[in-house]
């Protein structure tokens, strides 16, 4: 995936990332309590870029240093960025604990589906301990309608460990601890821009793997670039 993230950094500007961002937190921004904003598994986080001029403490967490480096370069390229309140932590969550600070917002974008539902429930318990009354949680996960979900395939959960329903997310952040204040079921086809990025990445990946047979290349590209439904659940919770 290193090749892919390099392409994202080279091809997509900060403005393009922000234009494509669906950030419901903005609807509740005036209700946010004092505290830090943390993005766990941040990548080149458009969410944190959306808050780059805030005076709040910003904590970017990822277990891939290349992603943290790319994000830092993006932030430092913006004249309005408040650089002194940003930190970039190479941590392996949840094995490594979160910084012991008060949080106004905790972001899980495209992360929890890399854990089993049982593991996610334990993560929810950890977050309940780390959050305060009023802390907001953003969750974006692949739903059961995601194109890669095929329960009849014995390898279905080798990469993505769980595909979610909203009931599953409510188990992770249960009603006695959290109030769900936003929910969206997203189902969309790849945009032309997304397909172009995927095709360029696939060409580079095939080249890196040393595949030269034209028929094999055509089969790989045909299978990977077929029209895929990107189906996700987005939910925002507030700690009671």
Overview of the structural elements:
The chain is an alpha/beta fold. The chain has one domain (2-190, 231-239): Rossmann fold, CATH 3.40.50.150. The chain is 34% helix and 22% strand. The chain has a seven-stranded mixed sheet with strand order 3-2-1-4-5-7-6, with helices on both faces. Strand 4 (103-109), helix 5 (117-130) and strand 5 form a beta-alpha-beta unit. Helix 1 (2-11) packs parallel to helix 4 and helix 1 (2-11) packs across helix 7 (192-208). The chain is globular and about 60 Å long. The termini are far apart. The model has no long low-confidence stretch (mean pLDDT 93).
What can be said about this structure in brief?
With 240 residues, the protein is α/β, with parallel strands linked by helices. The chain has a single domain, classed as Rossmann fold (3-Layer(aba) Sandwich). It is 34% helix and 22% strand.
CATH class: Alpha Beta
Gap between N and C termini: 38 Å
Q: What is the quaternary state of this protein?
A: single chain
**Biggest β-sheet description:** 7 strands, mixed
The residue fraction in helices comes out at 25-40%
* Secondary structure: number of strands: 7
Large-scale geometry? globular
Number of helices: 8
**What is Rg?**
19 Å
In the residues, how many domains can be counted?
1
The second-level CATH architecture is 3-Layer(aba) Sandwich
- For CATH, the homologous superfamily is named as Vaccinia Virus protein VP39
Strand order of the largest sheet: 3-2-1-4-5-7-6
